[in-house]
Write a structure and sequence with these properties.
The chain is built from 9 helices and 18 strands. By secondary structure, it is α+β, with helices and mostly antiparallel strands. The chain has 2 domains: 229 residues, 3-Layer(aba) Sandwich (Rossmann fold), CATH 3.40.50; 98 residues, OB fold (Dihydrolipoamide Acetyltransferase, E2P) (Beta Barrel). α2 crosses α3, α2 packs parallel to α4 and α3 packs across α4. The mean pLDDT is 94.
Amino acid sequence: MSYIEFKQIDKYYGTNQVLKGIDLKIEKGEFVTLLGPSGCGKSTLLRCLSGLEEISGGQILLDGEDITHKDPKDRNIGMVFQQYSLFPNMTVEENIAFGLKLKKTGQKEIEKRVLEAIKMVELEGKERQYPMNLSGGQQQRVALARSIVMRPKVLLLDEPLSAIDAKLRKSLQNSIRQIHKEMGLTSIFVTHDQDEAMVMSDVIHLFHAGKIEQSGSPISMYTQPVSRFAAGFIGNYNILSKDEFFCVTRREISGSEIAIRPETLQISAGPIDGPDEYRFDGVIVDSIPRGNVLRYLVDAGGIKLHVDVLFRSKVLFENGMKVNLSVSDRNCIRL
């Protein structure tokens, strides 16, 4: 039996069904990400697990126990939100200790656990600071410590990093993963950011319109999309119909739709040597820097394609230049 099981979960808000027969199993110790656009149901499922939302149908099991209608305070589930929700009149250590005091934990045990949590989130020296004196990243670390100090069976994180700048977000991603491993937690992370999901997860569940579109490891999700939606949401694929593919390559291919990752397309000013099955030409329309990658927009027979190359390339193409392109059949994914 899996550690967490969602069985045929339905959730309605009035006549609007936001979760549609969700079946999902999560193993103990996994770091699982629920990924998808706004309104797809991922945060709603998280809130149903925590008990903050009542389900309309189905069953939720945690460690073999039916918790479908159990009170939130009795589920032993920690939750970190996008909003820090700290008590402004309490210091860092008082905020972290708050839940333990409600449970009437002994003072020595409280002091021990709070000290451990502060070290885990690297807030030593900030114990007596108030939230107003902390940065956004530090406040989120306090919120994280407040959850892990309770030693929950499951840690839920509902887009906790979306309001934090990019550099700090990466640091907190590492901190959360490290804490997850050190404590042996089972963690469920909600995000709409595919890069964040790829970096942090053992397993990703991609949500679309209240259902799970695809599940798998980060690598399998990126390299083996099962639908147009999955290919469009993870990896920025070029998606062509069978007719569009023929228009570009003048070659027939099986499948009604074909997905091609931008980095699998070869591009050159001259002829391309190698085993690639499909060869064609195009014209550079635009180029967009994306970190260490330069993304070209290429017009190939009236079809626009994205092509990614590393900036270390010795040849950079100007708008209007004619280029040669190729792609192997194994990188043409039939959807």
